[in-house]
Amino acid sequence: MQPVSTLPPTTSETSVVRLPSFLSQKLRFWSLVAMVLLVYVHAYNLHPRYLQPWTAVDEPLTVGSWLQYFLANGLLRFRIPILFAISGYLFAYHDTRAPHKERVRRRLRTLLVPYLLWSAFGLAFTWALEQYPATRQLVLNAGLSIFGPDNALVSGYSPGQLLLRWLLFPVPFQLWFLRSLLVYNLAYPWIRTAVERGPWVYFSVAGLLWFTEFGIPPLFEGTGLVFFALGVWLRKTEFNVLAPPRWFRLGLFAAVWVGLLALKTWLAFCFEHPPFLLMLFLHKTAEALGVLVMWFGTDGLVRVAMSQRWFNWLTGFSFMIYVLHVPLANYVTETALRAWPSQNLLVFLLLPLAIVALAVLLGAALRRLVPGVYSVLTGGRGL
């Protein structure tokens, strides 16, 4: 399972070049909402835990299990594509503010430094849990090790394995987004040239990589290649991203989106091995439809939410929600299900809210008491 640059914009990014007012509000809205939805996806607690487009469900079909899968491996999956597109749009929007080398140096501070710090924190937190038998079992049950069940504990890693997990495959696995975003920022001049000179060629190739789930971690992911570049292309062609295209019909697109995901969810429960290509087609088609429906169909919700002072305040902690929720959600999920083994749906619905509240409270305390530390941990976001 995988995470306004796509993350909330840094203070300097929002102050140098002014975005249109409602577009700025919309980006801040999605910076928060997408992170909350991310927590829900990663709080999925059915078996198998690891979700791919074609994943089946090894548990009985109930209203609760159906809803979990429908949301976590369906309706909420639009968030990564939409955030990559926003990130590409913003990076292109600001590409005249400084030479590319200078912008990359800034991105090392806003992306690489938080990546390394939070990756180290994830390792240290997991190691600490492993020192006590009860919490060690939570780590084992969560199954986050990339080295398999025979080497499941951080305390058993070799120095080389520790380095690999710190730098490339963090325990907080959502950090892959920061890593990929940094790669795309480094490659921005080539991406911009490709989408300006040969958009049909670029998007044909990148779209195929996205559809087939092809990627070479930690270098690039198919989803990022196509949607980050889409954001760049939208900005460079001065496409009006606030106005729906003439062919867009909200009701029709929303109905098809939900219908495809209902079919995909039914297949996941009714087949031990659902048809691979059909599941992939349904997932990717619904993903693209979700981006359109949620971007163009939620303007009223955005206006209402952004008119509330409390919601505006919460948007300052989007990054804290993003970096803090894994592996915490995984370990707390195992704790909750051990105490309430038959309450999968309730745990799925309530646990993310508790984690979001914890991240916001911790972020607010750090920002107030040690703003310098908070700035380093968040790459300057939310100040």
Structural notes for this entry:
The protein is mainly α. The chain has one domain (11-118, 170-378). It is built from 18 helices and two strands. It has helices spanning 11-16, 21-42, 63-72, 79-93, 100-129, 133-142, 159-167, 176-186, 188-197, 199-211, 222-236, 250-270, 276-296, 299-306, 309-315, 318-339, 344-369, 371-378, and strands at residues 215-216, 220-221. The protein has a two-stranded antiparallel sheet. A hairpin with a 3-residue loop joins β1 (215-216) and β2 (220-221). α2 packs parallel to α16 and α4 (79-93) packs across α11 (222-236). The longest helix is centred in the N-terminal third of the chain and has 30 residues, at 100-129. The two termini are 29 Å apart. Mean pLDDT is 92; it is low at 1-6 and 11-16.
Top keywords for this entry?
383 residues; mainly alpha; 69% helix; globular
Topology overview:
Blueprint: H1 11-16, H2 21-42, H3 63-72, H4 79-93, H5 100-129, H6 133-142, H7 159-167, H8 176-186, H9 188-197, H10 199-211, E1 215-216, E2 220-221, H11 222-236, H12 250-270, H13 276-296, H14 299-306, H15 309-315, H16 318-339, H17 344-369, H18 371-378
Antiparallel strand pairs: 1-2
Helix pairs in contact: 2-4, 2-14, 2-16, 4-11, 5-7, 5-8, 6-16, 9-10, 9-11, 10-11, 12-13, 16-17, 17-18
